Amino acid sequence: MNTIRRQLTSPLQLFALATAGIILLPLGYVTSQALSADPAVWSRLWATRIPELLFNTVSLAASVAVITLFLGVSTAWLVTRVEFPGRRLWEGALVLPLAMPTYVLAYVYSYILGFGGPVEHVWQLLAGPQARIFSPHSYWGATLVMALDTFPFVYLLSRSALLSMNVSFEEVARASGVSRLSTLWRVTLPLMRPSIAAGVALVILYVVSDFGAVSLLRYQTLTYAVFQQMTGRSDNTAASILSLLLVGLALIFLITERWFRQKSRFYQTTGRYRAPQRQRYGWIGTLAVTSYLGLIVGAAFALPAALLIQWSLSPEAQATLDSRFFGFVWNSGVLAASAATGGVLIGLPLAYLASRRPTFLNLSCLQAAYAGYVLPGPVAALAVLVLFTKLAPMFYGSVLILIVAYVIHFLPAGLQSLEPALQQITPNLEEVARTLGFGMRGTWRRVTLPLVRNGFVVAWVLMFLQTMKELPATLLLRPVGFDTLAIRVWMEASEEYFQLAAPSALLIVVLSLPALALLVSKDWRAA
Amino acid sequence: MLLVVAWIFVPSAPAADKITIYSGRSERLIKPVLDAFTASTGIQVELLSSGTTELVNRLKAEGERTSADLLITNDAGSLELARTAGLLRPLNMREIERAIPAQFRAPDNAWVGLSGRFWIVVYNTTMVKPDQVKSLLDLADPKWKDKIAIPNSGSEYLQAGVSVIRATHGEEKTKQFLQGLKTNADSQVYQKSSQIVDAVAKGQVALGIVNHYYVYRHLASQPTAPIAVLMPDQQEGGMGAIMNVAGVGIIKSTKHLDSAKLLVEFLVAQAGQKLFADLDKEYPLHADVKADPALVDRKSFRAALVPLTKLAELREPTLTLIEQVGLR
What we know:
The structure holds two protein chains of two kinds. Chain A is an all-alpha fold.
């Protein structure tokens, strides 16, 4: 029995090892670059840039994490546990910000809140012509934009935890006379903890690796500084040093998150799904809930989308809609779909092995896969470029190089939902299936796959959406003549040509919508 | 399905009558000129627009395998760096030597300047009087606290400008200047010159340091904007305005040498130079081509004396200085 098992799993094991190795290559390249640097460069950076950059990065990540935690969990709870008119509509609408790239939101907000913008205009009518509002090009500006754009990660994972949670735990608590609030605090939230932690982890990784929004808002984080170093100097040593720091930072925090999750492992005791009782609110409650949700969705999606539409209808924008445009759309769509599919195929064995046979080796392979996310986009891109020209030159100049960079960069986003999905099924189920005479393959097909389908779909969609929006790696690696919608948005938006950037931005949003629809559609939820 | 796979794995084959350009100049500034070239020769042009230094880095990493045939940049220092890294191909072409004066080319013609740009002070005419600033160094004066917008330290023309100031005024004075500039600009550090001009026009700041043509481009689309150009360091014994050139070089490993040469020829000839002058509001380098009449007359001001070919070797210590000061 044991030998059979070993034979069956070893290819999987080998695959996982190989994947981890490939994913680690860029990190290895950056590390060796940083460590072979002249100590003078290190000390210069310590004396000048590093303290400010570390402080900025950590404080931005912290404030965004707190805000998204609150927004994500509260909205998820409202749409799953409260019954009010339009609930289903809000349930879907809360995911919409995921279709809006952070740099687009940053742009829209630098217009709305910026110098001489509409908000300041109104404020000056009230408070006198010299009055100023807070600048969007600041810590708070960056926090606002990032939080509005990333809270759906927490919302989605919290919501799916609330939906797939076995309600009998709560019912038992209630039946034993525990109050509603206390049940929420002592039963529901702890049960949600792995999902919430995963969601917040996604948010923080996103924030520290974001390049577009912070650069448009001129807020200095490590990733932004890395890009500046890489594009402004002909020597990448300083960029590598800053990247290594970023990796260290992300590792500290990933280990913390893992510890959180290990401490609380829960199994779904049955695959059957039952809807929880939803509370009904009176009209005051309904009004309060609706305006709360309306405010969030309005600020994170409706308002920016309305502005994009308005800008897209301007004559300047209309003039950019030529035949090249179709090419950008095709490029973006196929790239994102390929990267997402590749990511799921590569991520599954890693997540599966780590959750089923959590040996040191398997857990290390899984952790290795997270390396790509903490490596800033521009540096990952450069490493991929160097490695391709050295190891696989025949593919150089093809789109494959971009897809590899995307998979390395966005695999963790997929793993964050593949992992909990696999963890929630008890291994007993598979073992029972095996004893009942199913083969390895049969067990997968009949038991495991149906149970993890949720995680699959979420993983695919998250990677699709993120690839669609990706900027720094695309900027550095795209083959000649191969522009994506994101590149077009960037080119126009970075020079504040709001109107010209709008059609491409709007198209990214529109193309992301079907993927989002898949994410919130019902048929996979109740699996 | 097969189509998609092929599309992913197979690098697009370069056609004979097609050349590939890596351009550090924004697409907006260069594409119309290249379109004119395609229209007159039938040679297709593939354009990759990105940051200048970023493209030089990419060329270094790509080595022989690059698909680029030409490199166009907005800075002579970067071209010289590419030349010393052995990325560019020396050219022996009489057309170039006839059209472009020697001080705007590499000694072996591995790169050729195409248009001149000057680092100027743009000011908001309702907030500043032109006699309040004589020299770039005046901008470090504490009275301009929070009133100045500057480009970020990654921009090649900032690096080139600081190099010229260092070569003229020495290390210490330049350091003081940068420290003052950093304090005065605070968070008004921009990625693009067009944003600086915009901020000055809106009155968000009173002054900014940019390349001259951004001001004229802004005025061309918004003639009533309250901005004007101030040509700095023209006083008796002063440094002179800081000059840089946008230029082009042919990549050493090019497989389309003839087409690439045709393009260089097109760009340095009167017609090409005129396109640059008209579309981009830069100073043409060809002696017989006139600059846009809206610009300050080229004969009315002096340029700083630091030769363009020195910008590359000056750059490394300049970057160290910029980093020491902690400019963003």
